[in-house]
Amino acid sequence: MNTSFNWIKELVPGLENVTDEEYRDAMTLSGTKVECFEKLDKNLEKIVVGKILSVEQHPDADKLVVCKLDVGEDEPVQIVTGAPNIKVGTSGQLVPVVLAGGKIAAAHGESEIPENGIKIKKGKLRGVESFGMMCGIDELGSSRDIFPDAPEDGIYILSGDHKPGENAAKVLGLDDTVFEYEITNNRVDCYSVLGVAREAAATFKKEFKSPEIKQTGNVEKAEDYLTVEIKDADLCPRYTARIVKNIRIGESPEWMKKRLRSCGIRPINNIVDITNYVMEEFGQPMHAFDHETIAGKKIVVKRASDSEKFITLDGVERNLDGEMLMIADGEKYIGIAGIMGGENSKITDDVSTLVFESATFDGTNIRKSAKRLSMRTDASGKFEKGLDPETAIEAVNRACALVEELGAGEVVGGVIDIYPNPVSRRKIKFRPDSYNRLLGTDIPKDEMLRFFKPLEIEYDSANDELIIPTFRQDLIRDADIAEEVARFYGYDNIPVTLPTGSSDADMVGGILFDERVKVRAMDTAEALGFSQSLTYSFESPKVFDKLRLKEDAPERNTVKISNPLGEDFSVMRTLPVNGMMTSLANNYNRRSKDVRLYELAKVYLPVEGEDLPDERTMFTLGFYGEGDFFDMKGVAETFFDRLGMNKKRAYEATQEYPFMHPGRTADIIYEGTKLGYIGEVHPKVADDYGIGEKVYLAVIDLNSIESFVSFEAKYTGIANFPSVTRDISFVMEKDIPVGEVEEIIEKQAGSLLESYGLFDLYEGESIKEGFKSVAYNITFRAPDRTLTDEDVNPIMDKIIEELGARGFELRQ
Amino acid sequence: MKEQLREITDKTLEKIKGISTGEELNDIRVKVLGKKGELTGLLQNMKNVPAEERPEIGRIVNEARERIEEAIKQADAEISEKVLAESIKKEKIDVTLPAKKKAYGHRHPNRIVLEEVEKIFIGMGYEVVHGPEVELDYYNFEALNIPANHPAKDEQDTFYVNEKVVLRTQTSPVQVRQMERGKIPIRMIAPGRVFRADEVDATHSPCFHQVEGMVIDENITFADLKGTLESFAKRIFGEDTKTKFRPHHFPFTEPSAEMDVTCFKCKGKGCRVCKGEGWIEILGCGMIHPLVLERCNIDTEKYSGFAFGIGLERLALLKYEIDDMRLLYENDIRFLNQF
Question: How far is CA A286 from CA A185, A193, A259, in A?
């Protein structure tokens, strides 16, 4: 929404001395946020009206002329120009002139607008002195879009009567500032100059002077010219129409043109300008039909039927459907309601009688129809917000008053007004205590009432009620009124306190258990050199092929987005692997070495019979470069240690994951529960991601480990008695994992076992083919005595016996 | 005998003065004090000394022994010190050679900022909670006064799974889920991932993060909201930060506001970070709309509350002066290493 500051000042007397900056700040703080403003004459200096007295040929240049102009000074000034529309021998035209020492906004024909304008100095053109410059419209910082009467190439000739020496910027309406606002969608009324002016009045505590709308109309009756029927009243709460005859199409007066131009609207002719003016002023779009084209002199408002077609006034054929509201006459459609009129009824220059339509349509319907037609027009943009039906009648009467004022035609008496369910003004109990309680303020009742006055919220003291104007459909309950009080009291003036809360409030902040697990994961990963990554939650279903998943793999069952940005973002991930691989690949491509990343990545697993998926957080680690499987295993082990998961963590070789190396991947099992997996990424997959090195991955489901985690610690004493360590060495088949040895040790060693560790692993010479030599040390300790051979020997015998039974051969 | 003693003593002491190594010292020790040493030998001659002189001679011998031992001890100490000094001299290193660093991973800047935010609110008694990212339309919209056909539903360009299920466009649904648990008072923040159908560019991402905050209790006022968020702003951007509350509109709060803070870089003078305005928009907030409370069966005559929503990426981008949001999701190690 844009408005001219001059227009606002006209409606709110008393703002004359408010600067642009003050206005911006105050409006923003009271809720009408100013996005930006542009002072139209910011780079214009010494621009005056000049009257051409004489034009003579330049003695030394065919394309230049030498002009004498009256610029309101004692002596005429001499200006040399090459503009094609200033011809030898002419005189009397009024033109904008920048005097030497002044400034213009831009150079003619240059698309770039200099930040600080262009200074004009006196100079010599081919030996003849020139004391300034006559200006084209672009040199004044404007354009032919809104000054259609300006020549494409040449000096702008001013129309009307102006005194030489007068400020030409002012004559052109450039002594104005245009403000652009961000209007929130609850404030439909502020999509109009009147709405913004009302806010300005309330903000500056001034009076709001709404324009006086004169009664118009001859003795005839509009009903004799036209009848209106609303067939689909659900979509059209109100339809008003007035008739104007003896139309005299012509130019609008300068004041109206200035207003329109300040809103960026190009003046066209008086009738079009009036409808545009009223739309800006009231925010109410209007449409004008040529009365002669209306068959049966009857207007019907009704839904279209599916697959009908209609040509709008821009000459384009549109496809209609059964939810689009149409304006029809006795035989045919003549407009798409609230969006665009029809070609068949549009106003031409020889129109003699016209129908002004000012109606209210259902906002949602208009929005959706405009979307389906892909034609969001100025009108539909206003209607879609849901307009106040009370404004419709004011707007049509305003338009007719302007017709009379401009002498554009003869207004027929009476108004056609189909308005089956008039809206009434809402009444709300006035509860100043409630507002103060919500705001934490102590604003007197009378002050509140003063805020309301410019907003046209009335107070009925007899019933202690507020009467809300119909254009404020957003004011319904105490909280809404409290906001009005707060806005004009000033958010900045509301005190600053901290919540005290109820007396029994015992609020201790903190993070929940699952978050502690995550923080521990992050700390561990970072201590071990992994940096945190973030990737999108959605990905392409093609990822599953890249990860070599089978056609019927359960991971292919995803939460699908019905309106994705594209296939690449169309399914919610069920695996965190693609994100990690993509991040690693990004780094590999950029030649970073030894990259280690982790992510706390959510996966989204559909649950049969549930609306929402199971969202699980996967602690995912990945690296390439220095390190191998066992480094990654070390990371996992450290992590479990840090979470107090001190029982046996089993690693079972698996070939279950098609994207992992089948001989170098293990499931991580704890207390019989699978927590995740770890291993080398399948070389083919790494290659498909463009990573030319081995990639290692660990994926741990944080939701599944939660029940095993403990952050509790207890001091158990420091051992007082010495330990006993025994070594054993034996030969076993190469393919049997040493994990089996460890199981035997744990099973047989009993409660005296303190620790055990692999200290030698050997294959090759002196060991027979297909076998390996393995050596462990086993440490025993008792808390209450020094262990002797009698304690340890029987245990070792049992271990050796079971190892032997398993076929492992003891070495001496 | 006395003469012999003095001679040995003087000779030995003289020798000790001249030696420079531990070995030489040891040789002397053995030669003089050892089992077959000179002094020991002399003592064996004691039997030849007349009985009445023995105590006298014994005392002199012991004295000589003590003197020699003392001299040896002293010489030993001097030699050790010398040896240590030499060895230390040899151990000299070039301290400007490179350090042996252990690789340490880095937290994502988003997360660092989130933890700062969390810490501030935890300190004020807030609990950190979470809600689902794939969310029911009801929680994301309807319960927050955004009914079907509301323009906000279009504006937000929601990703839909089906008619009933969306990718949440805001963290506000967590408010409703928390209220529905029926335990009041509430002080919570809910950080998390949200989704909007925005094409990826320097300032947009279809996937980003918000931190929702909510307080419900008796006598909670707009002034409390201001105070809470002002405290937050000062802690996160510095004590000299000023705040400005501008009226705004959100369907689920009334009155509503947006909060600006003075630019932490230029302190309000205007710079590149704040685009010359001196102020930066940080968050949206407001008093919880009575309809939202009522829908969760909360007595609006007794309780009131406020809520706010902070864009996490915005904070991170501002705080670290990151000029392109895409960097946050590329995970380039050269980027991550800077935090």
Answer: 21, 16, 18
Considering CB atoms only, which of A186, A437, A604 is closest to B249? A186
What pairing do the DSSP bridges indicate for beta strands A531-532 and A596-605? parallel
Kindly state whether B87 is in contact with chain A, defined as any CB-CB distance less than 8 angstroms.
no
User: CATH second-level architecture of A222-418?
Assistant: 3-Layer(bba) Sandwich (3.50)
CATH topology of domain A45-171: OB fold (Dihydrolipoamide Acetyltransferase, E2P) (2.40.50)
A439 touches chain B (CB under 8 A): yes
Interface test with A, best of B292, B333, B334 (most A CBs within 10 A): B333
CATH label, A724-810, candidates 3.40.50.1980, 3.40.50.300, 3.30.70.380, 1.20.120.140: 3.30.70.380
Share of chain B above pLDDT 90, in %: 60
A140-162 tens-digit pLDDT: 988 888 898 899 889 999 988 89
Within an 8 Å CB–CB cutoff, is residue A602 touching chain B? yes
pLDDT tens for A542-598 read 999 999 999 999 999 999 999 999 999 999 999 999 999 999 999 999 999 999 999
For residue A619, the model assigns a pLDDT of 97
Total-model pTM? 0.86
Residue in A480, A357, A491 with CA at minimum distance from that of residue B258: A491
Q: Which fold has domain A513-708?
A: BirA Bifunctional Protein; domain 2 (3.30.930)
**Interface contact A462, partner B, CB < 8 A:** no
For the residues A451-464, what does the mean pLDDT come to? 95
Q: What is the SS3 assignment for A176?
A: coil
User: Chain A to chain B, count of Cβ pairs less than 8 Å apart?
Assistant: 243
Cβ–Cβ contact B338 with A under 8 A: no
Q: Nearest by CB to B105, which of A483, A526, A569?
A: A526
ipTM score of complex: 0.87
